[in-house]
User: What shape does this take?
Amino acid sequence: MKFLFVLIISLKLLQASFYVEVGQDRFIDLRSMGYEKKIILEGSHPSYDFIIPILRGQKLIDVTFFMQLSQVLNPKSTITVLVDDVPLFTNYIKEIGYEPKISFSRELNSRKKSVKITIRLNMFITGDFCIDNNSENLWSTIELSSGFKVDVPQNIKHISSFFKDYTKDINIIDNSASIDVISLVYFLNKLNTTNQLETKYSFTEDMKSKNVVIMGNSDEIKLKNNTLYLSSKSLKSLNSQWSALFATSYLKNTKIVKPKEKKRGFKRLSLKDFKLKSITQKGLGDLYFNIPFNTRDFGGVAKNLIFNLHFNHTPVLGKERGYLNIFFNDQLMQSFVLDDESKIKNYPIKIPKSFINTGFNKLVVSTSFYLNNEKCIGSIPKLKATMFNSSYFSWDKINTEVDSVSSFLKNLQGDVLMIVESELKQSAMKFAEKLGKNNKSINNLDIKSSLDNLTKKQNSYNSIIIFANQNNFTKQRWDLPLIVNSNDFSIYNAIDKSLVFSSQNWDDFSFIQTGSFMDTPLFAVSYFNTEQAMEFFDSTNMAQLKEIDSNLAFITKDEIVAYHTDRNLRDSNESLDILAEYWENYKFPILLFIAFIALSLIFISYRKLTKEME
Assistant: This one.
């Protein structure tokens, strides 16, 4: 069996790449690259591919893998390491042990943007495939402490290179006291795909970190002695996708015009559009084809998403068993029986919206092929299968419906307006940092300081985020469920605005609510009683926020209490909702039918009248 899992980093992220401390080598382990669990390789011939970006000027990479192997493996089982598909070395387990540390260095071609490192194993116990595979003891793991060390030039010459390394710490010196620094915090964490960036704020430069100094009112961006100087005016140009072109040490009067998006109907993206090639696998047991993708490639969470798989395999005959399985984010979507017909087939796989994560998602196509026991002696035929890069995703539109904190965070992408009142600036910065680590789909993050920015319809924004004082949320102004006034608060139904609950004299808490403003999805954060309650929100991680399946949540020191204000009303009016949906989907033929009936009645009346006159 061959297990293939390819970690693919898009060209945009390759341009942004990872970070390194100025003037120091840095070891990047798998945990800091976003892996939450150790990598498990199973079967007789598993392999695992890492694609690692090469930084500008980087000439050497040191790689270390810590592994655990099944103790029952035959000592003549082997481990092979390949670099860019070229074998580097092969070792027997009897030589490296069952808990090996595999280390090697490799000189890099600076003209390439990445290097692929592959670990491939040939594992067996008795040498009889059927006995070994049925034992389920063919396994090995790559530990999270594995990783690589990079050497990086100390002198940074270009603005675009300032963000293209493996730095862990960024020191921000904000002499302008501008809230625009919040967008910079998001931008820094968005580019850092290791999710390890630690942002610090101080009044002086830190020689152990890279420094960003925000000062003045000009629109200049200047790089000097590994320190980036900019102003709040220049943040907009720096935070755009065009920053990858800034191969200079000084910029002034930079103008960026945001293009208008063309609205299209039905959409599709093929694997070829994802820069993936057709893949052919051969072997026994389970074969895996991995398809990583990001919701930002679709422009958000797609509605009615279908993966149309183009697939072919060698015939499965007689008593042999073969299955085609499709997993989405480790959940089985569909399974098909492999037959004796060899031709390219299309398998449409529906992916429910509730299964889609914001950002990175994993689609895995696997085949399971097992021989009957009579064929285990002598030559063993292997299954061959190909997944074609003509396979494609299709969808009808991007979902914009927001009825909970979870759905808002899932659909957060594109152009976002963030309104932050000065007293909640620190909490907004911490949230922007979490957002940058978990959501790379925001193209433009505009920061405003006053709620008066919402007096007009925000046609240009996909979503709005608000950090504001509790007293600024009133029933008349916002389509939000919670209204807070001094020492009491009231909960209103989000559909008909009727009072649901009110009370006084509560302990401190922070709260989140979702709603809309002029049909634009709205995410609002505030506190009750004292500003110190925002610490409860600040300590909540993004994973906890994404689990809130309601439009209102209270966060205390000890727990998160979630409540959906319109759920009961929706349940009682379910039949009305169905009729409304039916009308929306079929109103045109219904109107034609009504018009036909009306014309028929008019025609019949006319015939009767003409006969009476005759």
